[in-house]
């Protein structure tokens, strides 16, 4: 749980710095279809649909989850690096 909290904080710090439309981080711990407890760290943004922004992200339509435009890739390297830097800073102060 503490690792997930640290990751959530690092993601929030990095996103606030990099994206003016960043709204918040949602953290979920689930044990539903996978036979093990697992966590999700979801980014939320100002541009999200009003009817969905206050609800769990898994309520987005299926097409959204399978659309290539939203797939992780090299275009996210700057964000990954920023999150890694924030994690390093949080670990060094713990």
Automatic annotation (TrEMBL):
Source organism, top-level taxon: Bacteria
Protein name as annotated: Diadenosine tetraphosphate hydrolase
Organism of origin: Streptomyces mordarskii
Taxon lineage: Bacteria, Bacillati, Actinomycetota, Actinomycetes, Kitasatosporales
